[in-house]
Fold this sequence. Notes:
alpha/beta, about 40% helix, about 15% strand, binds 2-phosphoglycolic acid
Amino acid sequence: xxxxxxxxxxxxxxxxxxxxxxxxxxxxxxxxxxxxxxxxxxxxxxxxxxxxxxxxxxxxxxxxxxxxxxxxxxxxxxxxxxxxxxxxxxxxxxxxxxxxxxxxxxxxxxxxxxxxxxxxxxxxxxxxxxxxxxxxxxxxxxxxxxxxxxxxxxxxxxxxxxxxxxxxxxxxxxxxxxxxxxxxxxxxxxxxxxxxxxxxxxxxxxxxxxxxxxxxxxxxxxxxxxxxxxxxxxxxxxxxxxxxxxxxxxxxxxxxxx
Length: 258
Ligand code: PGA
């Protein structure tokens, strides 16, 4: 039995509509009972417009709500942005920050990621900060260099981050949505490296910080990934759109705890 409670988070990305969301949420509420919720933290991150629908559907269920991003600003003339306090107002406990799609497509660099995460933590919103290398970087043996840079950039928030509200997701970019998963050994080695770098960056809670793996996690590979000592659950994209698959993955995380 390890000390860190595993966490499985569904990142719905920009998928679905009100009707499909309703079906998915009600299947999740049926499938994630109190017994499972006691063994594994479960959260879903729908698109912003569906947060209120999800909040209502999840009421009383052991499933937390999260958003896929958060602004680094508090309020004001920032068209298109959504603040941490707005997310808290809608029952969110988490925001994903620095997802590779945001880094690659929307200009979220290390500086933006730390600003967003810092602002969220200041307001009491938990963050799931994503890090990970591209295929070129892995093939160029730059994985550790990239992870060291991305984790090192978080230094400024090290003292604000407690293990309950600060989570890291290791998501090798080449494994996201590609069907190609890091092997349990590759992932474990990156997770152990990230944990060591967090300690170096001043995260007093590094030993208790949950580090999730993300990138083509499915029921078939979840158990072997979660069996690794530094893999504390998963950030799930495609498979989170199927209630059966997502619940099976949450069960795998609970079972990995022994
Ligand atoms: P995937 O996405 O599970 O579809 O690979 C994971 C993620 O991007 O968070």
